[in-house]
Design brief:
Largest sheet: 8 strands, antiparallel
CATH class: Mainly Beta
CATH architecture: Roll
Distance between the termini: 20 Å
Oligomer: single chain
Order of helices and strands: EEEEEEHEEEE
CATH topology: Pnp Oxidase, Chain A
Strand content: over 45%
Radius of gyration: 20 Å
């Protein structure tokens, strides 16, 4: 019997390096709907056609390690109309740690970097959040 894959076993490949994240969300694609009707149409409704594709920003969360400031350094590359863009591959892994499904993200760049909420009574891991915009996702299943 075959079972669906669990969501907790995944990997993010980033410019050749593998980074550990506790959560990845926003792997969404959408096609806008264009409605059109011409005056000679015999029906009293519109025709729906596919329009431009839209991709949701991807949110990555990970624990903060001493001396690791990579997200903030990447965010600093944002200048007027320019930014360092990176490709990344997000893989859902099977029991043998092989990719069962991959999302290839093109031309990603940081739109937001958030630090943890600091509280004197907390005992949670400090989590930083990176939100990235991108120009498309290609889904592959080996």
């Amino acid at each position: 019997m075959s079972y669906p894959l669990p969501v907790f076993h995944f990997r993010v490949d980033w410019q050749g390096a593998q980074l550990a994240f506790s959560e990845v969300s926003g792997l969404e694609m959408e096609a806008e709907v264009i409605e059109y009707r011409d005056g000679l149409s015999p029906t009293y409704s519109t025709v729906k056609m596919p329009g431009l594709k839209k991709y949701t920003n991807i949110t990555l969360k990970r624990g903060i390690y001493a001396g690791n400031n990579e997200f903030a350094e990447w965010f600093k590359t944002i200048k007027l109309h320019t930014v360092e863009r990176r490709d990344m591959v997000i893989s859902l892994l099977d029991e043998e740690h092989n990719p069962a499904m991959t999302w290839k993200v093109r031309n990603a760049w940081p739109t937001k970097v958030s630090g943890p909420t600091l509280t004197a009574t907390g005992n949670e891991v400090a989590i930083e959040v990176l939100e990235i915009a991108h120009e498309g996702i290609e889904i592959e299943s080996p």
